[in-house]
Write a structure and sequence with these properties.
159 residues, alpha/beta, 5-stranded mixed sheet, 6 helices, 23% strand
C-alpha cells in the first residue's frame, strides 16, 4: 500500500519478495536503532569548516554515524528516515545536541573562543519541541555557552 501511495494517486503495487526483504531489513534496523543510543553505537564525527579568507578553522558540522555491531557503518540516509518515522529521532537529536554542545565548549576553551558547531535538527523535533519547550537552550545556559555556539539547521529532507 505504501509503495503504491508513494508513486501517486490511483496506483497499485504488487507485493514482491524484494519488498518483503526490504520490509524485514527496515524492521530490523528500527529495532536495532531503538537500542543503539543506549548501547553507545551512535557516534559524532566533525567536519571542519575553514574560512578561506584567513585559513582559520572556526566551525565544524556534527555528523551522526551509526556503527552497527553486525552490519558495520549504517548510512544516515538509511537510518535517519527510520528514526523519524518511529519517533526515536527526538532522543537521538537530543543526544547529538548535548554531545556537540559539550564538544564546542571544550574547543572554545582550548582553541578558539568563538568556535561554532552546526547540528541538524529534524522537523519531527521542531514539532515536538514546539509543544514541550526547548531543553536545548537550558543546556547551553547550564554549560555557560552563548546561543551562537551551536548553529541548528533543519535537515535536508524537510523541504
Amino acid at each position: 500500500m505504501y509503495a503504491a501511495k508513494n508513486q501517486g494517486r490511483d496506483r497499485y503495487q504488487y507485493f514482491t519478495a524484494q519488498m518483503q526483504q526490504q520490509s524485514r531489513q527496515r524492521l530490523r534496523l528500527a529495532n536495532d536503532l531503538h537500542a543503539a543510543l543506549n548501547k553507545r553505537q551512535l557516534l559524532l564525527y566533525y567536519q571542519p569548516i575553514v574560512e578561506l579568507g584567513g585559513g582559520t578553522l572556526a566551525k565544524a558540522e556534527a555528523l551522526l554515524r551509526w556503527q552497527h555491531p553486525d552490519l558495520g557503518m549504517v548510512s544516515p540516509a538509511e537510518f535517519i528516515p527510520i528514526a523519524e518515522d518511529t519517533g526515536s529521532i527526538v532522543d537521538i537529536g537530543d543526544w547529538v545536541f548535548a554531545v556537540a554542545a559539550r564538544q564546542v565548549k571544550q574547543w572554545r576553551e582550548r582553541y578558539q573562543p568563538r568556535f561554532q558547531v552546526s547540528v541538524n535538527k529534524s522537523p519531527v523535533q521542531f514539532r515536538k519541541q514546539a509543544i514541550e519547550g526547548n531543553g536545548w537552550l537550558a543546556l547551553l545556559q547550564e554549560l555557560g555557552l552563548p546561543g551562537d555556539a551551536v548553529v541548528v539547521e533543519i535537515t535536508e529532507g524537510a523541504c
